Amino acid sequence: MSERRASDDAAVRDEAIRRWHELLRETPSDDRGLQLLRRISVGNRRVFVVARPFLMTPVRYEQERLACTLVGSALSKLSAAIWRDPSLLDELGVSDAERELVTIDPGFAELDVTDRFDGFVSKRLGFVELQGGAPGGVGLVDAAAKAFMETSVFEQVTGEYDFLPLEALGPLREALLETWREWGGAGDPTIGIVDWYDAPLLPEFELVRDSLRAAGLQALIADPRSLRFESGRLRQDSESIDLVYRRLTIFDTIARPDDTRALVDAARAGAVCVVNPYASDVMGHKSVFALLTDSSMDLGLTEAERNAVHNHVPWTRRLTAVATPGHDAVSTEYVVEHRADLVIKPAHGFEGHGVHLGWETEPKKWEGVVAKAAGSDYIVQKRVGAHREAFPRDEPGFPLQRYYVDTDPFVFRRRMGSVLVRLSTEGITNVAAGGSVVPSFLVFPR
Q1: Rounded distance, CA 102 to CA 274, Å?
Q2: Over the stretch 199-232, which tens digit does the pLDDT of each residue have?
Q3: Distance CA 53, CA 97 (A)
Q4: Residue 352: left if φ>0, alpha if ψ -120 to 50, beta else—which one?
Q5: Which DSSP category does 50 fall into?
Q6: Nearest-CA neighbor of 83 among 283, 265, 241, 347?
Q7: Are 276 and 322 in a shared domain?
Q8: DSSP codes of every residue in 109-148
Q9: What's this model's pTM, rounded to 2 decimal places?
């Protein structure tokens, strides 16, 4: 795409945002679309607190799609290397309990059916983590996109620009069915969305279930405690489940073996198609990027894949008191000295817990963080520049507030689909601290 075209796309986006904000000032607080948006909650907490979606240019979308494709291909080769050499599981910090689950044969080759590449965009796109397993947000972004399309602002602004919502539920359904057929399934499966009934994301599971049912599929939500593995079939009450859309984390499975035994036994027996399989959780370890960016690893990457890793994956290392022989080493002295360019975070953390940004941490405190982390399961990663953008808060007057923008493409069987965008007033993207989630729309000139 030419530089002029990229510039034109950016100008169209900027003008569309300006018009959205202008029209929003005339929008009543009881606007139907905004009311729908306010009803979407997770754990009794609103997650959509701004009144505009993220607008993306076609050029930007194509850049992210290409980056996801090439980095995803490199990760596939790393995954193959790990299964050829299980000793690499030690370098990822995979526990014995995890090994028992991740080594279950899923019955199909494409382990990562649904992934989310979490990243930031400043001068370039940088992925800081890969959310393997079954990442959250799939149903929420589609529900929010539909709500925004019901707003009076959307109705007016589409007279001047064309918008295309980047939806996730359709690509998810296609990925589930493709995996079902690869597994050897015939016809349409009965799909069980499996997690605890009191899981915070239960409202999202309901959105996924309703979408599957609307497409003519049998779908239900099942708490693992309600499942039975009998006569070679996984069942909830009288219903047999053919395909499990697993939202239950591997750590919950390990922590509560009695409650999850039916699911694990059925998976181990090959009696049910599990998406994503437990094997996919390996690629969700934050230390995966330490192997991917390690110059001593020969993964057989193409030149395009190597360039994509170099351009889009920040240098990452496990932070250990003693350097690992045979691999690129990092000393605690180096981490202390380069505080302003580094992030320290737990290799198995969630929701921003335990993350320390060097440039926001006092030197003495940073030294303490490094000393403590070096004896635990932490990684150190080079800083990725973050973009900030003004969004109107959904409150009287729709005041503009600047947020850090975290861009997280969903990838379904290595194909990029929707893009979840998280907004936060802090350097660590944390929705619980007052941030927001927004869906993404492509914007085109009329």
Answers
A1: 12
A2: 988 999 999 999 999 999 999 999 999 999 999 9
A3: 41
A4: left
A5: B
A6: 283
A7: no
A8: S---SEEEEEEEESSSEEEEEEE-SS-S-HHHHHHHHHHH
A9: 0.91
